[in-house]
Inverse folding.
DNA sequence: CGAACATTTAAGTGATTGCTTAAGTATAAT
DNA sequence: ATTATACTTAAGCAATCACTTAAATGTTCG
């Protein structure tokens, strides 16, 4: 058995700039490989492989249409990233609030 | 010249689970390597190397205190991640709103 | 059917990663 | 000064990565 989709972590899926670029492109609209690949200075297999990783992370879905494969953004898993980063948001937005709290408790 | 800090991309800095764990640990409080390393099932050099990557991404800062190095979270660069992911937020939160808008414009 | 097309899978490669152990460098304690 | 402490840097290694070209797999069209 050669094996299935091979689930990848969403964080490492988005770590490659090329893959973020692909997501960004798909955010405008779903499209077939061919058209998607036009945007990038990369061989078709390279794009296909990136897509496989994104698919493994659940970030894109594919639909067959004749001999084409239409790729579509599936942003759902990015919510994990949003939730993760939100935990740290207080460290940069809360600076003033934190100072206020400190001064309140240490007048 | 062996070279400087070597700036790393914040996205790849946070792609490694070990590094996210380190950030999480540092979010509770700043601490010296020694104490930080206790939390992990990893050699000291391994932690040190992860820290170097995080430092390269500007996610931690170091301060010398005697022979110790006190590491401190610097969440600032995570704002880039937050901003990036926010661009996609509409794709999972806005489903209903988007449908509403669509129906409004295409009654 | 056979040729053209859209895409994936395979195979190979150089670079990078995540770790390890061993050796170095600074600072502090005796 | 010597030795212990707290770390970093170096060297090495197996695994993974991001690509490439070449070959294979559907799928449509003439």
């Amino acid at each position: 058995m050669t094996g299935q989709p091979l689930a990848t972590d969403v964080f490492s899926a988005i770590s490659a700039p090329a893959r973020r670029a692909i997501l960004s492109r798909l955010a405008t609209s779903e499209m077939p490989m061919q058209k998607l690949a036009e945007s990038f200075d990369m061989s078709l297999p390279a794009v296909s492989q990136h897509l496989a990783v994104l698919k493994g992370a659940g970030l894109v879905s594919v639909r067959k249409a004749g001999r084409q494969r239409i790729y579509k953004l599936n942003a759902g898993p990015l919510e994990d990233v949003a939730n993760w980063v939100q935990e740290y948001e207080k460290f940069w937005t809360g600076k003033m609030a934190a100072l206020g709290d400190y001064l309140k408790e240490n007048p």
Observations:
- The longest strand of chain A covers residues 60-65.
- Residues 2, 32-34, 44-45, 48-49, 52, 66-69 of chain A lie near DNA strand C (CB under 10 Å from a C1').
- The longest helix of chain A spans residues 78-93.
- The mean pLDDT of chain A is 88.
